[in-house]
Amino acid sequence: MSRWFLRAYAALLFLYPQRFRKRWGDDMRRDAERLLLEEHEATGRWPWRSGNRVLADLLTSLPREHLAARRYRSPHPVHDRRDTMGSFLLDLRHTLRGLRKSPGYTAIVLLVLAVGIGANSAIFSLVRGVVLRPLPFDDAQELVWMTEAIPAAGIPLFPFSAPDLRDLEERTSTLRDVGSFQSRMYELSGSGDPGSIYGVRTSASLFPMLGLEPALGRNFTAEEDRPRAGVVILSYALWQQRYGGAADVLGQTVLLDRRPHTVIGVMPASGAFPLNKMPLHGRPADLFLPMGFTEIELNARGNMHNLGVIARLAEGAGLDAAKAETTRIAGEIQELYGEVPSGMELQINVDPLREVVLGDVRRPLLLLLGAMGLVLLLVCANVASLTLSRSFARRAELDLRVALGAARARIVQLQLLESGLLAAVAGALGVALGALGLRAGLALLPGAVPFVERASLDGPVVAFSVALIALAITSSSLLPILSAAPLGSRQSSGARTIGSRGQRRMQRGMVVFTVSLAVVLLVGTGLLVQSLQRLVLEDRGYDADSVLAMELALPASAYPEPERVLGFVRQLHEEMNALPGVRSATVTTGLPAEATERRGFVADAPLDADARIAVITTWASPGLFDTLGIEIERGRAFTAADRSDGAGVVIVSQELARQTWGTDEVLGKRLRWGDRDQEWSQIVGVVGEVLDGPVGTPTTPHLYIPYDQFEADDLARAAELGNAWGRGFRIALAAEQGDPTALIGSALAAIGRLDSSLAVSRVETLSRRVGASLAPRRFSLGLLSGFSVVALLIAAMGLYGVLAYQVAQRKREIGVRLALGAERQDITRRIVVEGLKIAAWGLILGLLGAVGLGRLMTAVLYETSSRDLQTLTVASAVLLGVALLASWIPAYRAGRLDPAETLKPE
Amino acid sequence: MAKPLTPAVFHVLLALAQGPLHGYAIMQAARESAQSGSAMGPGTIYGTLDRLLGQGWVRELSSDDARKRVFELTGRGDDALRTEAQRILSLADVVRRRQILTEEGA
């Protein structure tokens, strides 16, 4: 039954003092066995109750018996229980004295442990905050993110449109709730300065589905989910900033795009939405409005795909069931589109929300977790090797004590006390370091990674650190004790003991191991650096460095007539172009890496004559391509002559030309909007590709239209319905030379002259604006670099520690050599060579390990081989350099030893 | 006044007050009277017996069966148990007099 348990118990009895064990051990084993047997017979199951009881008893009685045994032997018998503390304090004082006697060892071990523990708890906090914690929604595992797709047209996903969403909601049975949202900039006025703020329209179903409750007031009702409902919910941040957290904000009126809205609720601080990194405008909104689909939106079949859709799976319905059902529904929706060429089927994607939000940071973070494991190993190996050195050095002392009759248990006890003390102090230091490190790390990563704001050094993380410390203690104290197993039985070689060859080999093995781990981390960092450099240098198809970007939106209330909007854009473009220092300027509805407006169109292509293809569509004033440095491959750019009253013209990207017509030679070809019988527009130019996603992702087709051709009807209707469509602009200014941010002042002044009440936002360089897509990689790089520095430091300290010890141990030998006429430089050189030898072995092993492990990194590398020669070379050079320094210090000291001093009798 | 006994000592003495017992029986009796299983395991019981033997409160009876060591209370052990019992009773009196446990709480 529980033979193994009893066997283990019998083995554990050896932990009791010898006298006690001999006297009572057999009885104890017999009674424990009887206890287990009786329970087993009574219950017929494994006797876990008795098992627990026996173990708990063991844990409580063990220390008691050791204390009793000590009193028993003490020359001044202490009978009073209260004196136990006194003897503990005595031990503690003894240990402290021992540590004070070797300050070098104490300092290095403390430092290694503290740095290791600090780095690890900071990283673990981040990983826990970002990856291990669920999304901040109710039953987040049931939530899915939904998009549409036309795989045959090379469009893996695009956002939902209002009519498609309606159709889905009407037909589904596997989705319990469906919520949607859509964002844009609004002009906020009415209290305080007018400002441009980021608003999100949400369906009334969204917040209840996610489990988000306003902290004040209420959610939108289904009745309010209509156009111009005139109600608004504030985010916690806006409430604090603009209203100072005043409770009477409910019922107040704010002007959004100069239309009154009543505040009906305030979200709690924890209710930020959309989450950072949530696709489509992923950053927390300043305020929320009801979705309230307009007529235009509801009738825009195949158009205005701009909705984020989140749904909750019905009870019992799995992801697969939902996928099967949505495939069927997609087919039904497609029929409503009219005739579609075969092969161009519409599909609906259903993806777990968690994967969508965390997708691209998960892998790098798990990689970091691996790096953290390496650092942990490194710390333990290093502390063990240092402690080993020390205990070999103290071998003589220990042998002497045993000879004088000290109990081995007592030595073990003191050793454990010493390790425990070191670990406790290092743990406290480490947690403090970790907190500092985490704060510094968070400050360096604004919004680059979802949920970084959730990472904090909290309870479980501290518990993790404590577990780390415990591991470090055991490794550092157990190893020397085990290696000193035949204590006392071994002949003592006297005070000059320098450790046997086997021991020294073991020590060196440890250092070789730590060095090799450091090499693995160094190489990993080097590969990421290479990869990031290549990413930054990669041609994105436009020039982001010398361009200044900003945003503004024209309120429909102030600019109701389409002519006024068109006129304003024309005037704005002219003003911007005329600014001193501006080489070229453009006013556009979208900049690279953020254009989300997709449009369906019909081409006069010979193939797929009726295919409605949804492409990223940008309306822009002349100067777009020149300003952004987008290559014009064929034909011409837009000119001021491309007015709405002339024949319609468009420019397509090469990708679009090839996908639709199968060739670049498309000048003169025509296309038109699929949803209306409109005039054909003629292609007058073909431009190069622009990268919208992160570097390394495929390019998507683009369509460019002069802003002057923006459909006046659409603008007018959108304005009538309070819709911002076509009224949000980005201004891009290319500087003639130098820093584009120098243009900020004059640009803002020029806009102010046109309309002083307009709010301009997100004024920054284009490279900064699009730089966010590199952020996750920069993030991993930063952390991994931190790790390598830590690893390098620890390895160097280990190397230094071991060499310093050897020098200390061999003082006498070195003294003799010097006395016999050895050159000081020679001594120094020999020790340096010894250090470098150890480092070289570590390097070789480390490089082998790095190449082996490199395969795991390919997922996060970009156009960099995991065996990149340059990286391996640089890593090796750095390591050898550090090793040289670490060996030189003790070697230099050895060379300066005074022979007379070292040869004095002890 | 004498110092209070530790629970382990008290319950071992209490068990032996009924007559000589072997270790396992002491353990079971102590567990029953202490109303808690976990504290009264083999290590605790034999550790306590070890000290009680040293103090002369308990003695080991010679037995034919080396596997069943039987223990009994000495006169000093009996005194100690009585003193402790007296102490507990007078403590109980204090509690009662101050009416710390009300009718419904009792």
Model description:
The complex is a heterodimer of chains A (906) and B (106). Chain A is an alpha+beta fold. Helix content of chain A is 52%, strand content 15%. Chain A contains 26 helices and 22 strands. In chain A, β18 and β19 (681-687) form a beta hairpin. In chain A, α5 (103-132) packs antiparallel against α11 (353-393) and α15 packs across α25. The longest helix of chain A is centred in the middle third of the chain and has 41 residues, at 353-393. The model of chain A is unreliable at 74-84 and 484-498 (pLDDT under 50). By secondary structure, chain B is mainly α. Helices cover 56% and strands 9% of the residues of chain B. Chain B has helices spanning 7-16, 23-34, 42-55, 75-97, and strands at residues 21-22, 58-61, 70-73. Chain B has a three-stranded antiparallel sheet. In chain B, α1 crosses α2. The radius of gyration of chain B is 16 Å and the shape is elongated. The mean pLDDT of chain B is 84. Chain A binds chain B through residues 16, 20, 23-24, 26-28, 30-32, 34-35, 49, 52-54, 56-58, 60-62, 64-65, 68, and chain B through 23-24, 27, 37-47, 49-51, 67, 69.
CA(first)-CA(last) distance of chain A: 60 Å
Quick check: average pLDDT of chain B? Answer: 84
Shape, per Cα inertia axes of chain A: elongated
What is the strand content of chain B?
Answer: 5-15%
Largest sheet of chain A: 6 strands, mixed, barrel
Low-confidence stretches of chain B: none
Helix content of chain B: 55-70%
**Backbone structural class of chain B:** mainly alpha
Radius of gyration of chain A, in angstroms, nearest whole number: 36 Å
Q: Indicate the percent of residues in helices of chain A.
A: 40-55%
Termini gap of chain B: 29 Å
Question: Unreliable segments of chain A (pLDDT under 50, ≥5 consecutive)?
Answer: 74-84, 484-498
Shape of chain B: elongated
Radius of gyration of chain B: 16 Å
